[in-house]
Write a structure and sequence with these properties.
The structure is a homodimer of 351-residue chains. By secondary structure, chain A is of the alpha/beta class. The first copy, chain A, is 44% helix and 14% strand. In chain A, α2 crosses α4. Chains A and B meet through α5, α6, β2, α7 and α8 of A and α5, α6, β2, α7 and α8 of B. β2 of chain A pairs antiparallel with β2 of chain B. The structure holds a DNA duplex (30 and 30 nucleotides).
Chain lengths: 351, 351
DNA sequence: GCTTAGGATTTTATCGCGCAAGTAAAAATA
DNA sequence: TATTTTTACTTGCGCGATAAAATCCTAAGC
C-alpha cells in the first residue's frame, strides 16, 4: 500500500523560519531555502559526491545565508564514525604528559579527528573513565595507563582500536607505542660508568608505575652487569618534592656520586636540593641524570643529562596506529618501541 | 515496483546475537534479552525514572551480560545536550595552559561533562577551529583566544554558552573569567619600588596577546605614577628562549636593576641567563619578577617572585558559568575578575 | 532538419542509525 | 470503581546511504 505524501511536513518542523532563536539550522532548512531536497544538501557537504555545479553553488549559498553547519553528532550516528578519539592520561604534574597530549592532539587534528580528554587522578579510576569514553562511540582510544585484561578483551571484541602509550601488557601483545625504558637507562649507566663513577643510587617512581619499574630495574641490571652491586633505591612519586626528599635520604645514608632518577622532574628536584641544601657542585661533586627530556631539562639552569623520549614520533605512531585500525579493523596488534636518545647536558660527568 | 515490507526486522538487525563481533549492543538487544521493551531499558538508565525494582534488576543484568552501554551520541541527538564542551587553548609551551586545561577538565568531569580539546598553533586559526567545535553540538565553549565580533554574535544568537578565559572584549561585555593582570603588575611594581629599585625594564609577550599588553602597560603605568619614566620594553614571545634573548638585550643597552617579565617562563629564561652568562646574583645584583605562578616558579632553583593566578578558582568559575548558562540560557553575560596573589620568592628584593 | 532510443548523470524519496519523550494501555494499588 | 504506578508503542532528533526517478546528453534513424 502506498503511503500518501506527507503534507506540509516542513511547516510542522519549523513553524517560523525567522524565529529560530537558539534552534539549530538543519539540512532541511537549507534544502527548503535552496529549493532542493535534503539529500541534495547532504551530498553537497560530502567531498567527492556527484553534484552539478549550479546545485552546489545554490546550496552553499543557502547554507551560508542560514549559517548551516552539518551536525557531526547526527552524522556519526549513521556513518558509525565519530571522528572522536579518547585520550586517557594520568596527571599533568609530570610535565611529560602535557607534551604528549599536545602532540597527539596535533596529530589527530591533522586527520580531522578530535580528542576527548580524560585525566586520571589515580590509575585505578581508569575503568570508570573508560566506560564514559566508550559511551561517546569514540573511533579509538589512546591510553597511558594499564587496563584490566577483561577490558582489553572488550576492546578486541568490539573492534575498537586501542593503543597503549608507554605501557605494555605482560601476557599478550597489545598495540602499543613505547620508549625503550631499559635501553635508555643502559645508555645512561654506560656513560656514567665510563666516566668513572663508583657509587650509584636510584630514585624510582611509584611502585604501581610500570614505567618506573622498567627504568629502575633497567639501570640496576646494567649496573650489576658492570659489577656494581647493592644499589640503593629510594622511592619517589615523580614529583619535584619527592626528588628533593629522595635525594636527602640518599645523601644522608649513601652519599652516591651518581643519582639516577626515574624522571626529569625528580632529577630537577634532586639538583636543586643538592645545590642549595648541600652546597654541592653538579657535576663535579655529584652527577644527576633523569628521563623524559621535558622542556625544563634544557633550561640552562639545569642542562640535565637525560634520555629524551621522541615524543613527536611516538605520538605520530600512536595516531597512525589508531587510524590504520579504524580504516582496517583487522589490522593486527603491533608494538612499536622507540629508542630514547641521550641528551647530553652538564648535570652529569659522562664519557 | 514497491518493495515488500522487510520481514523480521529484529533478525535482520542482529542475525546472530552471539556473533556480534564489532557490532554495537543497542538498547533493543538488551530489551530482547531481558524480555522487555526498548523504552523500559531506556528508563532504567535514566536516574529518577519510575521503574520497578524487579524490572531494573532484570534489565541491568541483561545490560551487564551483553556489555551494553548507552550511546551518548544518539542520546544527545534527542536530548539536545551533548555533555561535551569545547576548550580552545593556544599553545602548551607556556606551561600555564596545561595547568588551566587540567583544572577545567577536572571541573567539567565532576559535572559529567567532557572536554573536546583544541589547540591553536596561531590565534588566527581560531575561526576555523570554532566551526569544527560547533559541528559537535557542544554544550559550551571555553576559549583562551580572541574571537571576531561576528562569531560572538553567532554564539549569542544560537544561545551557545561561551566563556573567555583571560580575554575580554573592548566593545561589549561577554562572559569571561580573568585574572587582574594590571592589578597584579601594580603589586609587583609597588613591592619593587618600595625595596629601592631605581631602574626598571619590561619584557613583554607577543604584541597580539592582549594579556601581554595588559600586563606590560599595567606595570609601566604604575611605574609612571611613581615617577619612573622611559621604561625600556623588549618584546618576547612567552618562551624561555625569548626570555634569554630579551634580557641579553636589556643588559647590554639598559642594565636595569629590576626586570619585569610578562610571564614566568620568560622570567626563568632571564634568571638562567643573568646567572650563567653575566655571573650576576639574583636578587642582590638584579631582581626578576614574572607572572602566572606555574609550578617551576616554586622550584628552589628559581623561587620566582611572581603573581600567581588562582587557576583552580578561575577554572571552577569558568565551569560554573558554562553550566549555569546551559541550564538557563538567558543567564546574562558576566565578567569575573580574580585578583592574582603575590607569591614571594627570592628572585627579587621586595619590601 | 527533428525524433527517439540508450546510456550517463543528477536528483529525489525513503529508510534507519540508537535513543528518549510523549502518549496510550495495562497492571497494581487504593 | 477511581487512582496511581508501571509498561509498551510510536515518533522523530538530523543526517547519509540506497534505490528509484528524473534529467541530460549523445548518436542513430527517419
Amino acid at each position: 500500500m502506498k503511503q500518501p505524501r506527507i503534507p506540509a511536513l516542513e511547516l510542522v518542523r519549523n513553524p517560523k523560519p525567522s524565529a529560530n532563536k537558539g534552534r539549530r539550522v538543519t539540512s532541511y532548512d537549507v534544502a527548503r531555502l535552496a529549493g532542493v531536497s535534503q539529500s541534495a544538501v547532504s551530498r553537497c557537504f560530502k567531498p567527492g559526491a556527484s553534484v552539478s555545479k549550479e546545485m552546489r553553488a545554490r546550496v552553499m549559498q543557502a547554507a551560508r545565508a542560514s549559517g548551516y553547519q552539518p551536525n557531526a553528532i547526527a552524522r556519526s550516528l549513521i556513518t558509525r564514525r565519530s571522528h572522536l578519539v579518547g585520550v586517557i592520561l594520568s596527571d599533568f604534574t609530570n610535565l611529560h604528559y602535557p607534551e604528549v597530549l599536545f602532540e597527539l592532539n596535533q596529530g589527530f587534528s591533522r586527520r580531522g579527528v578530535h580528542v576527548l580528554l580524560f585525566t586520571l587522578r589515580h590509575e585505578r579510576d581508569v575503568d570508570e573513565v573508560i566506560e564514559r569514553v566508550l559511551q561517546y562511540q569514540v573511533d579509538g582510544v589512546v591510553v597511558a595507563s594499564t587496563l584490566s585484561p577483561q577490558r582489553i578483551d572488550y576492546f578486541a571484541k568490539r573492534q575498537i582500536p586501542l593503543v597503549f602509550f608507554n605501557r605494555s601488557i605482560r601476557d599478550r601483545l597489545v598495540s602499543s607505542v613505547c620508549c625503550d625504558q631499559a635501553g635508555g637507562e643502559r645508555l645512561l649507566v654506560n656513560a656514567l660508568v665510563n666516566a668513572g663513577h663508583k657509587s650509584f643510587a636510584c630514585l624510582s617512581g611509584p611502585d604501581d608505575s610500570l614505567v618506573s619499574i622498567q627504568r629502575t630495574t633497567g639501570a640496576r641490571d646494567r649496573l650489576h652487569e658492570l659489577g656494581f652491586d647493592k644499589i640503593p633505591i629510594v622511592q619517589g612519586d615523580y614529583t619535584y618534592e619527592s626528588g628533593q626528599a629522595g635525594v636527602r635520604e640518599l645523601i644522608v645514608n649513601n652519599r652516591p656520586d651518581a643519582v639516577i632518577c626515574a624522571n626529569d622532574v625528580m632529577a630537577i628536584g634532586c639538583m636543586d636540593t643538592l645545590r642549595r641544601e648541600y652546597n654541592m657542585n653538579i657535576p663535579e661533586d655529584i652527577s644527576v641524570v633523569g628521563f623524559d627530556g621535558i622542556a625544563p631539562a634544557l633550561w640552562s639552569g639545569y642542562s640535565l643529562t637525560t634520555i629524551r623520549q621522541p615524543v613527536r614520533q611516538m605520538s605520530a605512531a600512536a595516531v597512525g596506529m589508531i587510524m590504520d585500525r579504524v580504516d582496517r579493523p583487522d589490522t593486527p596488534a603491533e608494538m612499536r618501541v622507540f629508542a630514547g636518545v641521550m641528551q647530553g647536558g652538564s648535570s652529569a660527568r659522562v664519557a
